[in-house]
Design brief:
Blueprint: H1 7-17, H2 34-52, H3 56-61, E1 65-66, E2 71-72, H4 75-86, H5 105-118, H6 120-139, H7 142-153, E3 157-162, E4 178-181, E5 192-203, E6 212-220, E7 235-241, E8 243-245, E9 251-254, E10 257-262, E11 273-278, E12 291-296, H8 302-338, H9 363-395, H10 399-435, H11 446-454, H12 463-474, H13 481-499, H14 503-527, H15 532-536, H16 539-565, H17 570-584, H18 587-596, H19 601-604
Parallel strand pairs: 3-6
Antiparallel strand pairs: 1-2, 4-5, 5-11, 5-12, 6-7, 7-12, 8-9, 10-11
Helix pairs in contact: 1-16, 2-4, 2-5, 5-6, 5-8, 5-9, 6-7, 6-8, 8-9, 8-10, 8-11, 9-10, 9-17, 10-11, 10-12, 10-13, 12-16, 13-14, 13-16, 14-16, 14-18, 16-17, 16-18
Length: 610
């Protein structure tokens, strides 16, 4: 396979649908061109095929090892990442002033999609590093940007995000890592603290892949009596480097951050995942224990600042999930086209004297392939759409344009993360099914795709957390303004479909509008109950219905664009859109039924009944 992502599809999404070339008119992107974008996409595909894909299985079978002193990985990981850095991919979307290429986010994500499809585990290191650098660039002081963000953009340092703790899990209000301020004002790298505590599930937390590792750590500053204040408003965020960095950028002593152990996960086995200990005294920077950290922003702003990286990471997780689903789909499709088995049934039954046919000709296999196509390509489209919104935030000419992009991005982020994580996992399951018994063996890649993708329903906020965020915050935010904005965008697509002259597109606008109305009605019904507990007990079903409605909108918008432009991708887009509307969109009504009736089952069921 010479293309990790079908270039015809990618060109359709980027240039016909998202009109990425329009960005070139803005001063931020005038140094770029369509030819330059294409060259980056081609370079990403070549590098991912040459350096990432070949060790995907090997890194899965040979997990990182810790000998008590250092972590070792197979050498192919570092070679791939060195080539990634040398190719300029680490700083694709970073500002030119910071040493980046200043590419549009939508092109950055399209390039990175190739690496995710080739090897999701090795791709995890630059994914975290780029997000870490972006947060520091947006919220850090000038000195912090120079000392910690610029080296990450250059690929000299790698980065992590350290939120969860062994006893807290997703409940960040219960973290107990503490940060005690050291004396001194106007220090070169900002207010300095000594941190102590443990952080769990830290991907990329310890390795020898770069000169340094920059940890972004959430911690609480203790009260004067030494107690930790409760809640999330007490959380601050700190830059805690593995090796201390001077104001001049020179590396210094080892900081008091040590690896307490490795976690051995179901998937992403090539990404080292760690339990880190801060401030246990194994290293004594400046003569005493305690991990030195530099605060970003004011005390108590940590969670708000960290969400800069978290929201980027959620879209990135969705993209990774989409590409795992896509990789499995393409493998299953090729297998189905080449694997002869069975014969079609005629009026007199099956004729065993006739040659067997490829399994792709059997209706049930076609069902599974169409489902995978609709899930994976739809998820890719959604995440590229979100990346385009990020670009609009940067270049919108007025406040109204920025508000539109921000509202849509805020509302769609939990969908962009959760929907691909659920349904592209289902795509991977279907890929296994297409291969039959072979799909369950390690000799074929589809079982690894499934294992890798199963983590994404937990990465960067579990499925349930995304549901609570959507129903509990986003759809009611500003009096429902975000939901109203999205409904307007969907109505505009329905209007385009009606005016397109394509009878099929026009017909599909009606079930989409019914689904939108059903979501709006369920939202009203749930919050009219007066019971937040009752309303939020329906969050997951609501999330699924909302997500399917969003993807139905995406597919109809793609269909209208393909019809308008006579795109070569129209045949595939039409088939996937038909499948989604006939087999998937009808689920919305069933998922919303308990919400409409405000069924109390999930809060009334006694614990002993479980």
């Amino acid at each position: 396979m010479n293309e990790l992502v079908d270039r015809r599809l990618l060109d359709f999404l980027l240039y016909d649908w998202l009109r990425t070339e329009d960005l070139l008119a803005h001063p931020r992107y005038t140094e770029h061109s369509r030819a330059g974008f294409d060259a980056m996409l081609e370079a990403a595909n070549r590098l991912a095929l040459a350096q990432f894909a070949p060790h995907n299985r090997k890194s899965d079978l040979n997990e990182p090892q810790f000998d008590g002193e250092r972590v070792t990985l197979i050498p192919e990981v570092k070679r791939a990442l060195d080539a990634f850095v040398a190719g300029g991919f680490m700083g694709m979307a970073a500002d030119a002033a910071l040493g980046g290429l200043q590419l549009p986010s939508v092109i950055e994500k399209a390039c990175f999609a190739h690496f995710c499809a080739a090897n999701i585990a090795t791709s995890g290191y630059p994914f975290l590093t780029a997000g870490n650098a972006s947060l520091i660039a947006a919220h850090g002081s000038a000195a912090q940007v120079e000392a910690f963000a610029r080296p990450q953009v250059a690929g000299r340092f790698f980065g992590t995000m350290c939120l969860s703790e062994p006893q807290a899990g997703s409940s960040l209000s219960d973290i107990v890592t503490r940060a005690v301020r050291e004396p001194g004002d106007d220090l070169p790298l900002g207010p300095r603290y000594r941190l102590s505590g443990s952080k769990m599930w830290i991907s990329g937390g310890e390795h020898e892949l770069a000169e340094n590792i920059v940890h972004l750590v959430l911690a609480k500053v203790p009260n004067p009596d030494g107690t930790l204040p409760p809640g999330t408003r007490a959380i601050s965020i700190f830059i805690v480097p593995r090796v201390l960095v001077g104001a001049d950028g020179a590396l210094g002593a080892r900081n008091d951050v040590v690896l307490a152990g490795l976690n051995h996960k179901l998937g992403y086995r090539g990404t080292v995942n760690t339990l880190l200990s801060f401030g246990e005294g194994r290293f004594t920077p400046d003569g005493r224990g305690g991990a030195i950290g530099y605060r970003i922003g004011a005390e108590g702003q940590g969670l708000a600042i960290m969400f800069h990286m978290m929201n980027e990471a959620r879209i990135g997780v969705g993209l990774g999930a989409a590409m795992l689903g896509y990789a499995g789909y393409r493998y299953a499709r090729q297998y189905a086209r080449e694997r002869p088995q069975g014969r079609p049934a005629g009026a007199a039954g099956k004729d065993s004297s006739q040659p067997q046919v490829p399994i792709a000709r059997h209706a049930d296999v076609r069902r599974m392939l169409l489902a995978q196509k609709a899930y994976a390509e739809g998820a890719l489209a959604l995440n590229l759409y979100c990346a385009r919104l990020v670009d609009e935030l940067k270049i919108a000419p007025d406040d109204a344009g920025r508000l539109r992009a921000q509202q849509l991005l805020d509302l769609l982020t939990p969908i962009a993360k959760s929907w691909p994580s659920q349904w592209c996992l289902e795509a991977n399951s279907l890929a296994i099914q297409v291969l039959g018994g072979y799909g369950y063996t390690r000799e074929y890649p589809v079982e690894q795709h499934w294992r890798d993708n199963r983590l994404n329903m937990i990465h960067e906020g579990t499925h349930g957390i995304q549901a609570l965020d959507l129903l509990g915050r986003k759809v009611v935010q500003d009096g429902g303004a975000l939901l109203h904005r999205l409904a307007q965008e969907m109505a505009a697509t329905c209007d385009r479909a009606a005016a397109s002259g394509d009878a099929e597109a026009k017909a599909l606008s009606e079930p989409l509008q019914r689904a939108v109305d059903a979501v709006k009605e369920a939202t009203r019904a749930l919050w009219a109950s007066g019971s937040p507990a009752l309303a939020l007990s329906h969050a997951t079903g609501y999330l699924q219905a909302f997500g399917h409605t969003v993807l139905a909108w995406i597919w109809l918008d793609l269909l209208v664009t393909a019809c308008d432009r006579g795109s070569a991708a129209a045949v595939g887009v039409t088939a996937a859109c038909r499948y989604f509307y006939s087999h998937e969109l009808p689920h919305v009504a069933a998922w919303l039924a308990p919400a409409r009736t405000r069924d109390p089952l999930l809060i009334d069921t006694p614990e002993e009944a479980l």
